[in-house]
């Protein structure tokens, strides 16, 4: 599960098609495929047909792998949200892995808008968790 979530391919597979996600550029410090601390990803989404694409840059600000737990954090450097900090945590539980997503965000348009966005984010993360289980087909999920 850790390896699956550590590459741009994992992100692409876990993003609903309706988001119309495009990876514009990836900058990885060592030039490899694994998104390490310091990696920068330029992305855009265009969920509305004919509407303008929203561009943003996400930076991996933390990444650590321990014996029974691993995590990484991505933060929106530029984009439509005033702040976005997403912690992806993976914990070994017996012979399985527990995936925990924690997101801290502010839209920049006030608490009412922040609360209105919450159900959409909850659906998106439920989708991501389901797709992770399907992709890994019971292997460490």
Automatic annotation (TrEMBL):
This is Cyclase/dehydrase. It comes from Halodesulfurarchaeum formicicum. CDD domains: SRPBCC_3. It comes from the Archaea.
């Amino acid at each position: 599960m850790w390896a699956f979530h550590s590459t741009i391919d994992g992100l692409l597979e876990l993003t609903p098609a309706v988001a119309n996600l495009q990876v514009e550029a990836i900058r990885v410090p060592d030039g490899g495929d694994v998104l390490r601390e310091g990696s920068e990803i330029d992305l855009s989404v265009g969920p509305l047909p004919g509407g303008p694409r929203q561009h943003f840059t996400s930076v991996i600000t933390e990444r650590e792998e321990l014996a029974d737990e691993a995590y990484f954090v991505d933060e929106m450097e530029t984009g439509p949200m005033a702040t976005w900090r997403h912690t992806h945590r993976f914990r070994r539980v017996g012979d399985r892995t527990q995936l925990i997503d924690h997101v801290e965000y502010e839209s920049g348009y006030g608490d009412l808008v922040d609360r209105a966005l919450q159900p959409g984010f909850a659906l998106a993360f439920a989708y991501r968790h389901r797709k992770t289980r399907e992709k890994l087909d019971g292997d460490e999920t």
